[in-house]
Amino acid sequence: MKIQFIGAAHEVTGSCTYLEIGGKRLLVDFGMEQGRDVYENARIPVAPGMIDYVLLTHAHIDHSGLLPLLYAGGFTGEIHTTDATASLCNIMLRDSAHIQEFEAEWRSRKAQRKGEEPYVPLYTMADAIGAIELLRRHKYDARFQLCEGVEVRFTDAGHLLGSASIEIWATEDGETRKLVFSGDIGNLNQPLIRDPQYISEADYVVMESTYGDRKHERPKDYVAAFANVLQTTFDRGGSVIIPSFAVGRTQEMLYFLRKIKEQGLVRGHDGFPVYMDSPLAIEATGVFIHNQNSCYDEEALGYVKAGINPISFDDLQLVVTPEESRAINFDKRCKVIISASGMCEAGRIKHHLKHNLWQPQNTILFVGYQAYGTLGRSLIEGATNVKLFGESVQVAAQIKQLPGISGHADVDGLTRWISEIRNPKRVFVIHGESETADRFTAHLINDLGLRAYAPYSGTEFDPIADEITLEAVPRLVAKKPGQKANTVFQRLLAALDRLTKLIRSSEGRTNKDLAKLTDQITELCNKFEK
Q1: Alpha-carbon distance 146 to 407, whole Å?
Q2: Does residue 252 have a pLDDT over 70?
Q3: What CATH number did the domain enclosing 396 receive?
Q4: What contacts 389, CB < 8 A, 6 or more positions away?
Q5: How many of the other CB atoms lie within 10 Å of CB of 223?
Q6: Are residues 370 and 421 in the same domain?
Q7: Residues 283 and 143 occupy one common structural domain
Q8: Signed CA dihedral, 21, 472, 431, 377: sign only
């Protein structure tokens, strides 16, 4: 039995853990890195075609975003997750593939004008659809047998619609160990979705630490704090632009805006328009409505029972087409624009920033985590000029953060979550910036008396022997490669994995076919070794 830590080790994004149990190979999450890449990640130790199962905690791209690349590399196993997560992945992975293809096409046009080679997308829409077809759906709290020696249960993590902590009962050679993967643990008292549910027993725990060294600043009233930003901005003739994650945070903002409007908390600007400018967010909102009975909290269900949609209201305008999106910036009224992506790295929000950042009457309101290296992080940290579509744009608008609106538990919430688990043998701390992960690990050791460890990528652990069998050392990324080199090389590695699977499965073919394949591989090697 083996656990190998691959992604989100001393980093926040790119979650991935590799397991071997009784001859079966599993991944828990396979996410995309977002923002600055600090440490080199170990490669998954086997080709994608040799992986039997993926267990997916939730749909956010930093947990699910490389599943299409896994499929492109030859993975044909099953991806097990909750009902709502499968529905969200159905739209989010397609959207991610669309962004990959669109940006590759745009960059290729620029490269061609310079006489450079074209860009290649990390994966295609066909890859995303292939991965989506491998999704298998499960209800919360229903324990099921994944395969011989492996049983699984998904428990509501309260982070995002459908998000889950994963309980795994792993048996090998008559020995059973219970492994728990926290996923992203939700904040308490979030709008719409339930609080995280707690787990009482585990031998080994792998848990996140995003806010493991700080407490959230909590305004006494989220709605009042939000309304104050709107009131102040509208009174000076400006608009509020909200970079928001299309799935989760956008729906929460709609919930707050409904309350603000029905309670009349913004005075003198009745009927102010709210633009939801994200086709993905519009589709995701439909998934929220479809899963309201299994995922909504009591307050949100109260609206539903009264026949009210808690995430819709008058003056909400859904924006689908690019033409409709461009038209928003010709609306001179005080307004709210909610647009993805939440870290300002891609999508329509970049266009809205280009049109609004330089105007001092406007407010750019951040309502979610901003990773290192992202445009959103630069704005929060006081950038005075930023590059948008190759142009330098002055930052004159007010830059605000709405404290407390976080989908992640803070250090108190994380402490409460792990404290509910009785006497785990070890706790492995991942999914946090390096210093944060180390501080939270020290907190678990010094304040809670737990055996805790923050592994670097590549670290291996044997749950049967209760032993770290390989302690990896950190390997800093000397220089983050450009998208072109990065994506093409990852596609090359995926092709290698696919070729490896083909070769391993070729035993039993005719000698003629084997000789032909060998000659073609040799010819290819000879060509590129020159």
Answers
A1: 29
A2: yes
A3: 3.40.50.10890
A4: 350, 354
A5: 17
A6: no
A7: no
A8: negative
3-state secondary structure of 225: helix
Query: 167 and 95, same structural domain?
Result: yes
- CA–CA distances in Å: residue 199 to residues 19, 333, 419, 466: 21, 49, 9, 21
Give the domain extent around 349.
Answer: 222-401
| Phi, psi of 65, rounded to the nearest 5 degrees | -70, -15
Q: Are strands 398-401 and 363-366 parallel, antiparallel or unpaired?
A: parallel
Using alpha carbons, list the distances in angstroms from residue 18 to 277, 323, 424: 37, 44, 20
Number of structural domains, the chain? 2
pLDDT digits (tens, 9 = 90+) for 477-511: 865 444 444 556 666 766 776 777 678 778 888 88
C-alpha 187/C-alpha 43 separation (Å) is 32
Give yes or no: residues 107 and 196 share one domain: yes
Q: Per-residue DSSP letters for 322-370?
A: HHHHHHHTT--S--EEEES-TTSSSSTHHHHHHHHTT-TT-EEEE-S--
| Buried b or exposed e, range 301-322, using 16+ CB within 10 angstroms | bebeeeeeebbebeebeebeee
Query: For residue 178, what is the domain's CATH number?
Result: 3.60.15.10
Based on the domain organization, do 345 and 429 belong to the same domain? no
In degrees rounded to 5, what are phi and psi of residue 323?
A: -65, -40
Q: Which residue has the tokens 């940006």?
A: 103
Name the domain boundary from 401, 423, 440: 401
Q: State pLDDT tens for residues 29-63.
A: 999 998 777 899 999 999 999 999 999 999 999 99
Examine the domain organization and report whether 268 and 196 are in the same domain: no
Query: Using alpha carbons only, what angle is made at residue 422 by residues 416 and 425, rounded to the nearest 5 degrees?
Result: 110
Quickly tell me which residue has 């749909």 as its tokens: 59
CA angle 294, 277, 307 (to 5 degrees): 35
Whether the CA torsion 112, 115, 117, 119 is positive or negative: it is negative
Residues 411 and 396 in one domain: no
Q: Measuring CA to CA, which residue among 227, 224, 276 is closest to residue 249?
A: 276
Out of 354, 379, 401, pick the residue that ends a domain.
401
Same domain, 59 and 45: yes
